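Final report, section 2: Outcomes. Of the targets proposed, Fumarate hydratase class I, aerobic is the one most frequently requested by collaborating groups, and we therefore present its record in full.
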Amino acid sequence: MVIKIQDLRNVAGDLMAKAAIEIPQDYLDGLKKAAASEEGELSSFVLQAMLDNYEAAKEDRRAMCGDTGVPRWFVKLGNEARVEGGMVALEEALRRATAEATTGVPLRPNRVHPLWRTDHDNNVGIGAPEIEYGFEPEGDWIDLITVHKGGLFGTDYRMLFPSDGIQGIKRFYLDSLVAFGKRGLACQPAIIGIGLGGSKDICMTLGKRASTLRIVGSRNSDPRIAELEDEFMELGNSIGMGAMGFVGKNMVIDCNIEVGYCHTGGMPMSVHAFCLSSRRAVARIWPDGRVEHRTDPDWFTPYQRRDTVDWPLQQEAAE
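The predicted structure is given below as tokens.
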């Protein structure tokens, strides 16, 4: 059986609206926890205003933030998934859903040509929206994940070296957070994603996925990295900066770290802030038309973090 393209179009349109309007419950719970513990006067005011705004957005069915970011898609397919019309039809459906949501939700048309500033007023153009793919060994389903991420600031990269060690990672992390807060480069409190390793482009991808595709409270499957995530969350909230850069103690709602193998001589690192409007929505579509909506992208499965040539389950089956 194939997944009908009309089903994909319908779900993609629904996800665009959900991401723009409804805060994921994991982030909302983290924000409420931050608001309950915040002591800074202005930070407390901002946190409460954010919570009130989210309720109003959901009630009025309007985008939770005037700057709706830049919509992007992550698509994960089970190995047996088939799409009516193929992958070209899938990408056309996602581009059309983005364009229709821009006028329908509405979203702010944030995409322009870098040189000519050509603006189609629909967030679609050359390379926009981005569509990234992942795969799983089993299943005939497709997961559609949309993320509306801020597209200007709240991101930094540095080529560290093995001799910099954990202390060097901490220094760059804190340098980035202070710059984000003091220069208005991100809207805190944020989910912070850190990418370690890979080539420069993969390092940036790892950090961006860590910030947007992990839910608050999740931890890396490597227990040593999980310990670092806990430490870095506490460290980020120790610098005396709170909501929107005001004095406070809640700058980081959570910190997620993802790694990839890199060149022996380097240790690339990227830092990404997924701002206080943590806009994401997820749905799984089956060939029989069933649709399951959720807020956890469940992107970083054991298969996505595999570090062997063969997938272990394939090895077990062969034995």
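The chain has a mean pLDDT of 94.
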